[in-house]
Amino acid sequence: MVEASMPADTQGEFIRCPRCGQKTRTKVLPSTVLIEFPLFCPKCKCELIVSFRKGTLTRAAGA
Ligand SMILES: [Zn+2]
């Protein structure tokens, strides 16, 4: 039997929409890196192209 030392699946947090500030359904860990990721906001009902690195979310220019 192989036991992997996986971290608890309760880690991470939901990305907040840079447009309206509401939580989206996309979850990231502090170590997650996203580059030009199409983030869908259920509140705005639209996609925003964002990047996420070192715990900081930035909205891609021209998105
Ligand atoms: Zn939004």
Overall description:
The structure is a single chain. With 63 residues, the chain is mainly β. It has one domain. It has strands spanning 13-16, 23-28, 34-41, 46-53, 56-59. The strands form two sheets. A three-stranded antiparallel β-sheet has the order 3-4-5, with no helix packed on it. Strands 1-2 form a two-stranded antiparallel sheet. β4 (46-53) and β5 (56-59) form a beta hairpin. It binds zinc ion (ZN). Zinc ion is lined by residues 17, 19-20, 22, 41, 43-44.
Low-confidence segments, given as residue ranges, are none
Instruction: Based on Cα principal axes, name the global outline.
Output: elongated
- Classify the secondary structure makeup into a structural class: mainly beta
* End-to-end separation: 47 Å
Average of the residue pLDDT scores? 88
Bound molecules: zinc ion
Taken together, the total number of domains comes to 1
List the helices and strands and how they pair.
Layout: E1 13-16, E2 23-28, E3 34-41, E4 46-53, E5 56-59
Antiparallel strand pairs: 1-2, 3-4, 4-5
What brief labels describe this structure?
single chain, 63 residues, mainly beta, three-stranded antiparallel sheet, two-stranded antiparallel sheet, binds zinc ion
